[in-house]
Amino acid sequence: MNFAHFLIILWQRSLATDLQNLSMELRKKQSTYLQRLRQQKEGPDGMDLEMNLNRNHSRMEDDELDEMGFNEHQMAKLKKSEAFTAEREREIQQVVESVNELAQIMKDLSVLVIDQGTIVDRIDYNIQNVAASVEEGLKQLQKAERTQKKGGMVMCATVLIIMCFIMLVLLIIKEIFL
Question: What sections of the protein cross the membrane (predicted)?
Answer without folding.
Answer: 152-173
